[in-house]
Amino acid sequence: MPTTQSPSPVQGVDQLKERETLRLCTAGSVDDGKSTFVGRLLHDTKSVLADQMESMERSSADRGFDGMDLSLLVDGLRAEREQGITIDVAYRYFATDKRTFILADTPGHVQYTRNTVTGMSTSQVVVLLIDARHGVVEQTRRHANVAALLGVRHVILAVNKIDLVDYDEATFRAIEAEFGTLAERLGLTDTQVVPISALKGDNVVEPSTQMEWYSGPTVLQALEDVPVTGGRAEDLDFRFPIQYVIREHASDYRGYTGRVQAGSIAVGDRVTLPEGRTSTVTHIDTTDGEVEATRAGESVVLRLADDVDLARGDLISGADRPQATREFAATVVALTDKDLKPGPMVHLRYGTAVVKARITQVERTLDLDGVADLEDPEAVTLNEIAHVVLQTPVDLPVEDYAARGAVGNFLLVDTSTGNTLAAGFVGRRLR
Prior knowledge:
globular; 34% strand; 3 domains; seven-stranded antiparallel beta sheet; alpha+beta; six-stranded mixed beta sheet; Elongation Factor Tu (Ef-tu), domain 3
């Protein structure tokens, strides 16, 4: 009788390398079951080690939990476990036969909105969890707004705890309709709504047997089918902020080191430089030797045909070079207790450039319920999102935010303490 052989460890590694990787983020209100959902996802995809299972079973019993508390797989910090909440952004990794996943689990408390921004900033998909008993609430709208702000194209609304409303279709359809209206207002065009019970496992990984009225995908099926090719940094024009200039006078070597922020470049390609200058790429050096081409995400050393005076912070770009300016509109998210006000000087970190800047105007803070923005406020406070105008004493080649921050993002830093005051996005986003 013929027998089938299991793939070798080497073959298994090769298969993993060939799979696409999807970055996703979970968000929702407090007690909507995010940690239980992520725990269920890890458990049912068999991404939990045996010793983790044993520890989780013991901890569940110690807490008097009837069955297994899957949230313990996520809330790894002792203080968080004791409080029963998630504070930090927790990154988890799992895989299926179709692709690998990097998951960022973000806090639900409103005071940790800045952490949610961090988790969503690199995500291709956001899974928003809501409690079926409560429907769309303030935090749902807030997180949907943040997803739209960061340019996330795919949003899955997981209507959790559907078992606590007796798997009622009318309740689900009402939530589906309300979220559809919200998504349309925010321009979220690729959305799915899935009824789930993270506690019981309905429609997370395995299809539910309790909802004959629902014929759509499980959350995992939706995640496996989301295209990961749209809006990539590789699809943009070439952007290469210089981190360091290497000079070897004995050999006349001059190389510009950095990380390709967007696009791609090859030996022989024409590039544009500050002040309208151009040149040609003659060599691309890496730690493994010379290569003929490079693309977004790779760290390299570029050598050019012309002897030009460039420094850290300068941008080497493709033909579609962003216009240099000393004033631009932006959207900022306040990250500290120190209010952002017009006037005081701050440091602006854009790409590898660090320049002085100041807010000349706070145009409005955004009402995430979409009811009434506050026009001309005195300041931007912690976790608020605002439209501002920034001014710098030098020209900067800024451009609108795109490809999950490949271009168009910046930080505002306190000049006296070095603390990050705000994350920013070039352009007026959301409105």
